[in-house]
Amino acid sequence: MAKPRILSGVRTTGDPHLGNYLGAIRNWVPMQDTHECFFMLADLHAIATPQAPAALTSQTRETAAAYIACGIDPAKSVIFPQSAVSMHSELAWILSCHTPLGWLSRMTQFKDKAGKNKEGALLGLYSYPVLMAADILGYHATHVPVGEDQKQHLELARDIAGAFNRAYGEDFFPLPEPLILGEATRVMSLRDGKKKMSKSDPSDYSRITLTDDADTIAKKIRKATSDSIEGVSYDSEQRPEVANLITIYAALADTSIDAVAAQYASAQTSRFKSDLADLAVEKLSPITAQMRALMDDSAYLDGILRQGAEKARAVATPIHQEVMKRVGFLQV
Ligand code: TRP
Predict the structure, then answer these.
(1) What is the per-residue DSSP string for 94-137?
(2) Residue 127 CA, ligand 1 centroid: distance in Å
(3) Residue 265: CB atoms within 10 Å
(4) Contact 196 CB / ligand 1 (< 6 Å)
C-alpha cells in the first residue's frame, strides 16, 4: 500500500529558532520512514508580513539548511520553496472563490496579527489560510503535522475541501487530518512565558536561533526571565517562564516534564539554567555546525531545492490540471 502523504512547512520569515526545531522540524524526522513527505519553505506565506528581498532569499536558504541539519533527508523527503511551484498561488485563487468571508473572519491568527489596525492589515494576511489549504489540497495530502496554533487553519482547509468537493465531485480532495505533535511542542518566548517564541519578537533574547553560537545560547538562557519562587516546579499558570524552561529541557533531553521537575525540585534556578544551557549547546551545536556548512555551499543547497521543486511539480501538476478541468476552464 502507498504510504500516506504528508505536507508541512515553516514560514521563511527569519532565522529558524528553537520553537521551529522542537515544535515542528524535529517531529517530522521519524515520519520520513512511514509517510511520503513534502516539506516546503513557506516563502509565499512569509511575505504576508513584509520581507526585505535579500533577507527573504537568505532566510529561505537558511530554513532549508535547518531542515536538513535537523534530520530531513533530501533523499527521502521532498524539500522545495513554495513559490517554485506555481500551483500554490493558482489553486489558492480558485479556493478563495469557494471560501466565504465568514469562515476567514473567525481565524484567531489573523485577529492576533492584524491587531487593532484592521483597515491597514494586508489582504494576504487575511487570505493566508486559503493559501495554506492550497498547499495541502494541491498534493492530495492526507495528513498534516502542525502545532496547536495551526489547528484552526487545518479545520478551514477541511471545510474548503468539502465545499470544493460538493461543487465539483465528492471525494476529489481528501479531507486532511492534523497530526498533532507530541509533548513539548509549544516553546514560549524566553522573555514572556505567555507568548510563543517568535521570529518577529523585537528582542533577540526572546528566542534561541539555530545559528546562535554556544556563548550566545548560554547567555540567552542565563538571562531568560524567571521568578523569585524557590526551587524548580512546573506550573504553567503561576510560573510560565520556569515551566517553559522545563519544557525545553525535557524536549532536548528526550525525557518527561515530570522527570525534569522532580530532578530539579530543590535546585536553584541558576543551577537549573546553567545545566539547561549546557544541554542546549550539546544538542544544538551539531545542528548549527551543519547549517553553517550548508549555507557556505549555496550551490549544493539550491540544487537540492531545484530537484525538490521538480518532484513537487510532478505531483502537483496533474492534480492542478484536474482542478482546472472540473472548474470548467476552457482547455486550450
Ligand atoms: N502556517 C504555517 C505556520 O505558520 C506554515 C504553513 C504554511 C503550513 N503552509 C502550510 C503548515 C501547510 C502545514 C501545512 O506554521
Answers:
(1) HHHTT--HHHHHT-HHHHHHHTT-TTTS-HHHHHHHHHHHHHHH
(2) 13
(3) 11
(4) no
Query: Which residue, among 48, 53, 165, 157, has the nearest Cα to 110 in the 3D structure?
Result: 48
Cβ neighbours for 180, distance < 8 A, ≥ 6 positions apart? 146, 147, 148, 151
Tell me the CATH number of domain 5-180+298-327, given options 3.50.50.60, 3.90.1150.10, 3.40.50.620, 3.40.50.300. 3.40.50.620
Contacts of range 169-174, beta carbons closer than 8 Å, 24 or more positions apart: 169/326, 172/322, 172/326, 173/137, 173/140, 174/140, 174/141, 174/142
Q: Which CATH superfamily is domain 204-293 in?
A: Tyrosyl-Transfer RNA Synthetase (1.10.240.10)
Q: Kindly list the domain boundaries of the chain, sorted by start residue.
A: 5-180+298-327, 204-293
When pLDDT is averaged across residues 152-162 and rounded to a whole number, the result is 98
Regarding beta strands 78-81 and 36-42, do their DSSP bridges make them parallel or antiparallel, or are they unpaired?
parallel
Can you list the alpha helix ranges (DSSP code H) found in the chain? 18-20, 26-28, 43-46, 53-69, 87-96, 101-105, 108-114, 123-137, 151-168, 214-222, 240-253, 257-263, 269-295, 298-327
pLDDT in tens, 69-90: 999 999 999 999 999 999 999 9
Burial of 118 (0-12, 13-18, 19+ CB in 10 A): exposed
pLDDT in tens, 206-233: 999 999 999 999 999 999 999 999 999 9
For residue 24, which atom of ligand 1 is closest to its CA?
15
Does the beta carbon of 42 lie inside 6 Å of ligand 1?
A: yes
Flag whether pLDDT at 21 surpasses 90.
yes
C-alpha cell at 246: 522545563
Q: Which three cell numbers, joined as nine digits, stand for 192? A: 514572556
